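Batch job 17 of 40 flagged for manual review because the log was empty.
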Amino acid sequence: MSEPMVKVRDVTKVYTRGKERLEVLHHISLDIPKGDFVALMGPSGSGKTTLLNLIGGLDQPSSGEVWVGGKRIDKLSSGELSKWRAANVGFVFQFYNLMPVLTAQKNVELPLLLTNLSAAKRRQNAETALKLVGLAERRNHKPKELSGGQEQRVAIARAIVSDPQILVCDEPTGDLDRHTADEVLSLLQTLNREHGKTIVMVTHDPKAAEFAKYTLHLDKGTLAEQAAAAA
Protein backbone atom coordinates (compact mmCIF):
# COMPACT_ATOMS: atom_id res chain seq x y z
CA MET A 1 0.00 0.00 0.00
CA SER A 2 1.32 3.44 -0.90
CA GLU A 3 1.45 6.23 1.64
CA PRO A 4 -1.92 8.04 1.89
CA MET A 5 -2.01 11.62 0.60
CA VAL A 6 -3.59 12.75 3.87
CA LYS A 7 -2.95 11.09 7.21
CA VAL A 8 -4.62 12.53 10.31
CA ARG A 9 -3.76 10.90 13.63
CA ASP A 10 -5.63 11.49 16.92
CA VAL A 11 -6.21 15.16 16.14
CA THR A 12 -7.96 17.41 18.63
CA LYS A 13 -8.59 21.12 18.02
CA VAL A 14 -9.47 23.48 20.88
CA TYR A 15 -10.27 27.17 20.63
CA THR A 16 -10.21 29.36 23.71
CA ARG A 17 -12.12 32.59 24.14
CA GLY A 18 -11.18 34.13 27.45
CA LYS A 19 -11.89 31.40 29.99
CA GLU A 20 -14.17 29.52 27.61
CA ARG A 21 -12.70 26.36 26.06
CA LEU A 22 -14.34 25.04 22.89
CA GLU A 23 -13.19 21.63 21.64
CA VAL A 24 -14.16 21.56 17.94
CA LEU A 25 -12.51 18.27 16.91
CA HIS A 26 -12.19 15.24 19.19
CA HIS A 27 -9.44 12.66 18.49
CA ILE A 28 -9.96 12.48 14.71
CA SER A 29 -8.02 9.89 12.72
CA LEU A 30 -8.39 9.29 8.99
CA ASP A 31 -6.52 8.38 5.81
CA ILE A 32 -7.24 9.82 2.37
CA PRO A 33 -5.45 7.90 -0.39
CA LYS A 34 -3.71 9.72 -3.22
CA GLY A 35 -6.13 10.43 -6.07
CA ASP A 36 -9.29 10.30 -3.96
CA PHE A 37 -12.16 12.80 -4.09
CA VAL A 38 -13.69 13.07 -0.62
CA ALA A 39 -16.71 15.09 0.51
CA LEU A 40 -16.81 16.24 4.14
CA MET A 41 -20.37 16.71 5.36
CA GLY A 42 -22.02 17.52 8.65
CA PRO A 43 -24.26 20.04 10.35
CA SER A 44 -23.14 23.60 10.97
CA GLY A 45 -20.58 23.62 13.79
CA SER A 46 -19.63 19.97 13.29
CA GLY A 47 -15.97 20.83 12.66
CA LYS A 48 -15.77 20.10 8.93
CA THR A 49 -14.23 23.43 7.92
CA THR A 50 -11.81 23.22 10.85
CA LEU A 51 -10.68 19.78 9.65
CA LEU A 52 -10.32 21.09 6.08
CA ASN A 53 -8.22 24.00 7.34
CA LEU A 54 -5.92 21.59 9.22
CA ILE A 55 -5.46 19.47 6.07
CA GLY A 56 -4.76 22.60 4.00
CA GLY A 57 -2.26 23.97 6.50
CA LEU A 58 -4.36 27.07 7.26
CA ASP A 59 -4.58 26.07 10.92
CA GLN A 60 -2.74 23.71 13.27
CA PRO A 61 -4.15 21.11 15.68
CA SER A 62 -4.04 21.45 19.45
CA SER A 63 -2.76 17.87 19.58
CA GLY A 64 -2.23 14.97 17.18
CA GLU A 65 -0.48 14.73 13.81
CA VAL A 66 -1.36 15.91 10.30
CA TRP A 67 0.61 14.48 7.37
CA VAL A 68 0.08 15.55 3.74
CA GLY A 69 2.07 14.05 0.87
CA GLY A 70 4.36 12.28 3.32
CA LYS A 71 5.25 15.49 5.20
CA ARG A 72 4.20 16.20 8.75
CA ILE A 73 2.78 19.74 8.57
CA ASP A 74 1.57 20.33 12.14
CA LYS A 75 5.15 20.86 13.31
CA LEU A 76 6.06 23.48 10.67
CA SER A 77 6.64 27.10 11.63
CA SER A 78 4.25 29.68 10.15
CA GLY A 79 6.88 30.66 7.55
CA GLU A 80 7.54 27.04 6.58
CA LEU A 81 3.81 26.37 6.44
CA SER A 82 3.26 29.33 4.14
CA LYS A 83 5.90 28.06 1.70
CA TRP A 84 4.53 24.52 1.92
CA ARG A 85 0.96 25.68 1.16
CA ALA A 86 2.11 27.70 -1.85
CA ALA A 87 3.85 24.66 -3.34
CA ASN A 88 1.42 21.88 -2.42
CA VAL A 89 -2.17 23.06 -1.89
CA GLY A 90 -4.78 24.62 -4.16
CA PHE A 91 -7.64 26.41 -2.38
CA VAL A 92 -11.17 26.86 -3.73
CA PHE A 93 -13.65 28.80 -1.57
CA GLN A 94 -17.35 29.58 -1.78
CA PHE A 95 -16.55 33.19 -2.66
CA TYR A 96 -14.11 33.39 -5.51
CA ASN A 97 -11.75 36.00 -4.00
CA LEU A 98 -10.73 37.24 -7.43
CA MET A 99 -9.03 40.63 -7.82
CA PRO A 100 -11.62 42.78 -9.62
CA VAL A 101 -9.05 44.98 -11.39
CA LEU A 102 -7.17 42.02 -12.90
CA THR A 103 -8.06 39.89 -15.92
CA ALA A 104 -8.79 36.19 -15.52
CA GLN A 105 -5.27 35.46 -16.75
CA LYS A 106 -3.63 37.79 -14.21
CA ASN A 107 -5.80 36.39 -11.40
CA VAL A 108 -4.67 32.86 -12.25
CA GLU A 109 -1.03 33.98 -12.34
CA LEU A 110 -1.15 35.39 -8.78
CA PRO A 111 0.10 32.23 -6.94
CA LEU A 112 3.02 32.01 -9.38
CA LEU A 113 4.34 35.39 -8.26
CA LEU A 114 5.67 33.53 -5.20
CA THR A 115 7.79 31.29 -7.44
CA ASN A 116 10.96 31.86 -9.47
CA LEU A 117 9.17 31.37 -12.80
CA SER A 118 9.74 33.91 -15.55
CA ALA A 119 6.87 36.16 -16.68
CA ALA A 120 6.59 34.17 -19.91
CA LYS A 121 6.39 30.86 -18.03
CA ARG A 122 3.80 32.27 -15.60
CA ARG A 123 1.70 33.40 -18.54
CA GLN A 124 2.03 30.01 -20.24
CA ASN A 125 1.04 28.10 -17.07
CA ALA A 126 -1.95 30.39 -16.52
CA GLU A 127 -3.10 29.88 -20.11
CA THR A 128 -2.82 26.10 -19.65
CA ALA A 129 -4.87 26.21 -16.42
CA LEU A 130 -7.57 28.38 -18.03
CA LYS A 131 -7.73 26.01 -20.99
CA LEU A 132 -8.17 23.11 -18.60
CA VAL A 133 -11.22 24.76 -17.00
CA GLY A 134 -12.68 25.72 -20.39
CA LEU A 135 -12.04 29.47 -20.20
CA ALA A 136 -9.11 30.04 -22.56
CA GLU A 137 -11.16 32.46 -24.65
CA ARG A 138 -12.09 34.52 -21.56
CA ARG A 139 -8.55 35.08 -20.32
CA ASN A 140 -8.66 38.85 -20.91
CA HIS A 141 -12.03 39.33 -19.17
CA LYS A 142 -12.22 40.87 -15.71
CA PRO A 143 -14.38 39.22 -13.00
CA LYS A 144 -17.31 41.63 -13.49
CA GLU A 145 -17.48 40.48 -17.13
CA LEU A 146 -17.89 36.83 -16.12
CA SER A 147 -20.79 34.81 -14.71
CA GLY A 148 -20.59 33.32 -11.21
CA GLY A 149 -19.80 29.89 -12.63
CA GLN A 150 -17.04 31.34 -14.82
CA GLU A 151 -15.59 33.21 -11.85
CA GLN A 152 -15.43 29.94 -9.89
CA ARG A 153 -13.72 28.28 -12.86
CA VAL A 154 -11.12 31.05 -12.81
CA ALA A 155 -10.69 30.43 -9.07
CA ILE A 156 -10.19 26.70 -9.79
CA ALA A 157 -7.66 27.52 -12.52
CA ARG A 158 -5.82 29.68 -9.97
CA ALA A 159 -5.90 26.77 -7.49
CA ILE A 160 -4.35 24.31 -9.97
CA VAL A 161 -1.89 26.60 -11.76
CA SER A 162 1.03 25.61 -9.52
CA ASP A 163 0.19 21.89 -9.96
CA PRO A 164 -0.57 21.26 -6.26
CA GLN A 165 -0.66 17.82 -4.67
CA ILE A 166 -4.10 18.42 -3.20
CA LEU A 167 -7.13 20.66 -3.73
CA VAL A 168 -9.10 21.73 -0.65
CA CYS A 169 -12.53 23.14 -1.46
CA ASP A 170 -14.77 24.84 1.11
CA GLU A 171 -18.39 24.99 -0.15
CA PRO A 172 -17.17 25.60 -3.73
CA THR A 173 -20.73 25.66 -5.12
CA GLY A 174 -22.47 27.32 -2.17
CA ASP A 175 -23.04 30.55 -4.10
CA LEU A 176 -24.14 28.94 -7.40
CA ASP A 177 -27.45 27.74 -8.85
CA ARG A 178 -27.92 23.99 -9.33
CA HIS A 179 -27.03 23.84 -13.03
CA THR A 180 -23.90 25.98 -12.64
CA ALA A 181 -22.93 24.08 -9.47
CA ASP A 182 -23.12 20.77 -11.34
CA GLU A 183 -20.87 22.16 -14.09
CA VAL A 184 -18.26 23.22 -11.52
CA LEU A 185 -18.50 19.87 -9.71
CA SER A 186 -18.09 18.03 -13.03
CA LEU A 187 -14.91 20.04 -13.57
CA LEU A 188 -13.60 19.00 -10.14
CA GLN A 189 -14.50 15.40 -10.98
CA THR A 190 -12.52 15.66 -14.24
CA LEU A 191 -9.50 17.09 -12.41
CA ASN A 192 -9.73 14.12 -10.04
CA ARG A 193 -10.34 11.36 -12.57
CA GLU A 194 -8.26 12.50 -15.53
CA HIS A 195 -5.52 14.53 -13.85
CA GLY A 196 -5.16 12.58 -10.61
CA LYS A 197 -5.80 15.49 -8.27
CA THR A 198 -6.62 14.54 -4.67
CA ILE A 199 -9.63 16.63 -3.62
CA VAL A 200 -11.11 17.22 -0.18
CA MET A 201 -14.36 19.18 -0.34
CA VAL A 202 -16.56 20.53 2.44
CA THR A 203 -20.20 20.77 1.38
CA HIS A 204 -23.64 20.93 2.98
CA ASP A 205 -25.23 19.82 -0.31
CA PRO A 206 -25.93 16.06 -0.68
CA LYS A 207 -26.11 16.45 -4.48
CA ALA A 208 -22.64 18.01 -4.50
CA ALA A 209 -21.32 15.14 -2.37
CA GLU A 210 -22.50 12.67 -5.02
CA PHE A 211 -19.71 13.90 -7.30
CA ALA A 212 -17.10 12.69 -4.78
CA LYS A 213 -15.92 9.08 -4.54
CA TYR A 214 -17.09 8.89 -0.94
CA THR A 215 -18.38 11.02 1.90
CA LEU A 216 -17.10 11.48 5.45
CA HIS A 217 -19.64 12.69 7.99
CA LEU A 218 -18.65 14.83 10.96
CA ASP A 219 -20.96 15.37 13.88
CA LYS A 220 -20.03 17.36 16.99
CA GLY A 221 -16.35 17.03 16.19
CA THR A 222 -16.25 13.27 15.69
CA LEU A 223 -16.09 11.23 12.51
CA ALA A 224 -18.96 8.91 11.60
CA GLU A 225 -18.73 5.99 9.17
CA GLN A 226 -17.90 6.89 5.58
CA ALA A 227 -20.31 6.20 2.73
CA ALA A 228 -19.41 5.66 -0.91
CA ALA A 229 -21.03 8.09 -3.32
CA ALA A 230 -23.53 6.84 -5.88
CA ALA A 231 -21.06 7.72 -8.64
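Reviewer: the log was empty due to a logging misconfiguration, but the result itself is present. The chain has one domain: 34-62+76-228. Unflagging and moving on to job 18.
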